[in-house]
Amino acid sequence: MTTELLAPLDLAFWHLESTAHPLHLGALAHFGPLPAAPGEDPADVLDLLARRAAAVPRLRMRVRDVLLPVGGAAWSADPDFDVRRHVREVTLPGADFPAEAARLAAELMERPVERGLPPWEMYLLSGAPDGSFAVLVKLHHALADGMRAVAIGAGIFDEIAAGHRPARRPRPVPPRSLLSGLPGPGRLLGLARDRLGDLGRAVEVGASVVRASRLDGRPTAALAAHSSGTRRIATATLSLDRVHRVRRTTGGTANDVLLAVVAGALRRWFDERGLPLPGADPRALVPVSRRRPGAPPGPGNSLSGYLLDLPVTEPDPAARLAAVRRAMDRNKAAGPFRGAGAVALLADQLPPLAHRFGAPFASGAARLLFDLLVTQVPLPRSALSLGGAPLRALFPMAPLARGQSLAVAMSPYDGRVHIGLVADGAAVPDLDALATALTAELDLLDPPGDDDARA
After folding, report:
1. Which residue windows are coiled coil (predicted)?
2. Max alpha carbon distance in the chain (Å)?
């Protein structure tokens, strides 16, 4: 059977998960009504989803333990794969379809994927009065990072499926005995030097992580939470043209503008909650892909990240944006492999057994490094559809780190930035207020005109 060992970071994500703390990422995609001519109905869309998901080789793979390396695991094809165990339909009342879809998505995101099966699920959400529908996709973080998740999930769209090429099969892991392939005496010294070099790199990377840690262990209180096992989801949509208008005026990048909007929204949210501003600005982890530009996304996770103190305590919106720009410029100059970004590199240095038995101790380490995740997930720039129904919006959803109450994910598509907020349901019952605050903060940086109101 074809197998492929889990990369160290993927193995870490696999073992960090618990029943009360799932580690899958997701997306809630909203589609317009099906075109009238084909006469398709939601049952046809369900069948189309199932066929296209089954055609993605990666979605047929499950995780299995292996004897070597000790503590390791591998992806292997599920011999009993049944796509209908992964693709289901739920009909909603439809009176307020977007809100109902978000509420159901939160409930479904609370549940871990079944670990004995390929670790993913899709749900067709139907029942909107105008014939529109939504699709919720869940992928375990061990299966993919954001860019890889887009590459996998894109297989359901008409435009991608039409040009589908069979994916390359994973390279088999050859069987080995405990005595096969032992190095001769002449190579032992070289191998020892390599291992000492690896140890030195691991110590250097570990030191970088320690330097970035807040050793007092004091996270921003409003963003910290014991895992309740519940989830709440809210969404917001911003005009990409307005984001770029701010960028052209102030310099920097569109991502700088969006990070400043998040900082301002958090400040507004604290105020509306009647909470005092934190004594120190909350720290965000901003993931960075380690994949080469233009290279096809390979299997598994390839991530690093920047640490950014979100200037929540700064009252002036323009000054907040300037602070974000300066901080992100420093991050880029230093590179993504220091601080929080070095956690991914450290995972690459550890043996599989350390991931398996160290997960209970490492699971709470995120709060020492950052308070919340803020990530951007790129989507194809071309228009997308499913069964002829146009994609209207796609809201990405990031997993929550243990001990934290909020994660923010953003995807630009079709002239808009779609923002998915995922929160611990017990800790953040007012997540919709934070979603509303995002729009208000962009208004401060770029007061809306008539054209913006129509958009």
Report:
1. none
2. 78
Say what the pTM is: 0.83
Superfamily designation of domain 196-379+386-454? Nonribosomal peptide synthetase, condensation domain (3.30.559.30)
| E strand or H helix that includes residue 28 | strand 24-31
Q: E strands along 290-331, which residues? A: 303-309
Supply the angle between the helices 254-272 and 431-445 in degrees, to the nearest 10.
130
| Confidence (pLDDT) at 238 | 98
| b/e burial code for range 302-327 (CB count within 10 A of at least 16 → b) | bbbbbbbbbbbbbeebeebbbbbbeb
pLDDT at position 6:
84
3-162 and 196-379+386-454 share one fold? yes
Domain 3-162 grouped into CATH 1.20.1290.10: no
For the four alpha carbons of 106, 121, 21 and 404, in that order, the dihedral sign comes to negative
Top pLDDT among 141 and 165 is at: 141
Q: How many helices (H) and strands (E) does the chain have?
A: 14, 15
The DSSP bridge pattern shows strands 231-239 and 61-65 to be: unpaired
3-state secondary structure (DSSP) of residue 390? strand
* Helix H or strand E encompassing 104: helix 97-110
Domain-wise residue ranges, the chain: 3-162, 196-379+386-454
Percent of the chain at pLDDT exceeding 90: 48
User: What is the C-alpha separation between 136 and 28, in angstroms, rounded?
Assistant: 5
Beta bridge partners of 373: 285, 407
Per-residue pLDDT tens digits for 148-160: 677 787 888 998 8
